[in-house]
Amino acid sequence: MTHDDRAVVLASGGMDSATAAYEAQSRGYDDLYLLHTSYGQNTEQREYDCARALADRVDAADFCHVETSHLQRIGGSSLTDDDMNVAEADTESEEIPSSYVPFRNANLLSMAVSYAETNGCAAVFIGAHSEDFSGYPDCRPAFFEAFQRVIDVGTKPETSVELTAPFVEWSKTDIAERGLELGVPYEETWSCYRSDEPACGTCDACAFRLEAFQRLGERDPITYEERPEYAE
């Protein structure tokens, strides 16, 4: 049985997924089931702590933490491979960055759909957005549309799960603005690809995050080693 007020949120510990959780609640999903995965990423402990804090903040119906170490063993990403360096920020690049974890979202969404079907959730929320899909092929709208077809075909006939990427056409600035409206506790989120504390301020994830807050005239509440000016 599907419950219209239940949704799974892929909770990475970052600001996009935290905003997605609050957005889901604003849309009437009162019972949130948060799924967090550790896959050997550089900042996995800090990300776990932030995802756990988010579950408490939204009074989640459940918090599921899954170890997906196969992504580290497969490698191919600077987030999981010690032999690859996390690149310096280049917010204008159209190349696929070294931080891309090959086909990660298909892995994560598969688990999220299993979790949703088991718990009768009507939706799966993911915080991917337009600045993600410019570099990550598994963040494109076409990918999510295709994955929705996989969900429809691969679940029980009575199962109805909507894959929801509410920010897929939004910029990071749009997300930050919406999150501030919703009261998202951004001080309890983490984006840096390199460090648990402080955030480096110079990787792509830090750059996009800092730029968003700078464009809004707000101060990002987390601690940085450097706070370069990224906003034009």
List the helices and strands and how they pair.
Blueprint: E1 3-10, H1 15-26, E2 31-38, H2 44-57, E3 62-67, H3 70-74, H4 104-119, E4 121-125, H5 130-133, H6 141-154, E5 162-164, H7 172-182, H8 204-215
Parallel strand pairs: 1-2, 1-4, 2-3, 4-5
Helix pairs in contact: 1-7, 7-8
Summarize the structure.
Pfam families: QueC (PF06508). By secondary structure, the protein is α/β, with parallel strands linked by helices.
3D structure, described in words:
The structure is a single chain. This protein has a single domain (3-171), classed as HUPs (Rossmann fold), CATH 3.40.50.620. The longest helix is centred in the middle third of the chain and has 16 residues, at 104-119. It is built from eight helices and five strands. α1 packs across α7 (172-182) and α7 crosses α8. The protein is of the alpha/beta class and 232 residues long. β2, α2 (44-57) and β3 form a beta-alpha-beta unit.
Key features?
232 residues, alpha/beta, Rossmann fold, five-stranded parallel β-sheet, 8 helices, 13% strand
Distance between the termini: 50 Å
Q: Strand order of the main beta sheet, please?
A: 3-2-1-4-5
* CATH third-level topology: Rossmann fold
How many helix segments? Answer: 8
CATH architecture annotation: 3-Layer(aba) Sandwich
Query: What is the overall silhouette?
Result: globular
Count of individual beta strands? 5
* Estimated share of beta-strand residues: 5-15%
Query: Which superfamily, in CATH terms, is the homologous superfamily?
Result: HUPs
Mean pLDDT across every amino acid position: 92
Largest sheet entry: 5 strands, parallel
Low-confidence stretches: none
Q: How many structural units, i.e. domains?
A: 1
Helix share bin: 25-40%
Look at the structure and give the CATH class.
Alpha Beta
Along the chain, the helix and strand elements come as EHEHEHHEHHEHH
Sheet/helix structural class: alpha/beta
Rounded Rg: 17 Å
